[in-house]
């Protein structure tokens, strides 16, 4: 009953503010996880509508650690020639991250045989807690295939990566849903702010893949 009351209050507040549309869009996500995060209401109230724009970013020369425990250079990971879909997450997040990770899980399924032509990248913004083992468990939870990899590392490396993509918000509780896509090294990035759907991402990616 308490959860329902909080949801009703949040929905009412958003309706008054004229922003009920984004809430409805989020509620229609497939298998949307139940939100128990005490900061979930804060996230929902601060969420912008989905926007898409082109942007130029320089991938920083930082070393991260994959969920398999291997140390890698972020530049090498992103510059393997495949289109990239990148986001920032942390494993103990229970509001935004389950939704964006679920979207990438759906994206894998929708890509079908094309999935191995795309590199999905999730970088932890809480590397002090997100060990490779914890990221591996998180990846398994969302059915991540070999084309979807999760990265941790030092706090400094994580912050540098976030800053490079204009995604650093200081406290992890202040993070917002942002997805970055790029067709190939040297190409501009597409920045999608808000909860992009798997169908939207599939359309973007298929425009990047060579015509069969």
UniProtKB/TrEMBL annotation:
The keyword Transport does not apply. Gene3D superfamilies: Glutaredoxin. This is Thioredoxin domain-containing protein. Cu cation binds at residues 93, 97. It comes from Sulfurimicrobium lacus. Disulfide bonds join 93-97. Keywords: Copper, Disulfide bond, Metal-binding, Signal. Residues 1-29 form the signal peptide. One of its GO terms (molecular function) is metal ion binding. It holds the Pfam family SCO1-SenC. Belongs to the SCO1/2 family. Residues 53-210 form the Thioredoxin domain. InterPro entries: SCO1/SenC (IPR003782), Thioredoxin-like_sf (IPR036249), Thioredoxin_domain (IPR013766).
């Amino acid at each position: 009953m308490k959860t329902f009351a909080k949801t009703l209050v949040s929905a009412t507040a958003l309706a008054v503010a004229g922003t009920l549309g984004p809430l409805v869009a989020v509620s229609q996500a497939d298998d949307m996880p139940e939100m128990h995060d005490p900061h979930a209401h804060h996230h929902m109230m601060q969420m912008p509508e989905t926007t898409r724009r082109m942007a130029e970013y320089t991938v920083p020369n930082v070393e991260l650690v994959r969920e398999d425990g291997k140390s890698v250079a972020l530049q090498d990971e992103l510059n393997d020639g495949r289109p990239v879909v990148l986001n920032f997450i942390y494993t103990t997040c229970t509001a935004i991250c389950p939704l964006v990770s679920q979207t990438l899980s759906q994206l894998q399924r929708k890509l079908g045989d094309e999935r191995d032509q795309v590199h999905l990248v999730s970088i932890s913004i809480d590397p002090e807690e997100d060990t490779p083992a914890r990221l591996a468990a998180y990846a398994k939870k969302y059915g991540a295939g070999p084309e979807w990899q999760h990265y941790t590392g030092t706090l400094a490396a994580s912050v540098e990566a976030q800053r490079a993509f204009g995604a650093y918000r200081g406290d992890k509780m202040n993070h917002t849903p942002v997805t970055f896509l790029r067709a190939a090294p040297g190409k501009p990035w597409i920045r999608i702010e808000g909860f992009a759907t798997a169908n939207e991402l599939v359309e973007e990616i298929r425009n990047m893949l060579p015509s069969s």
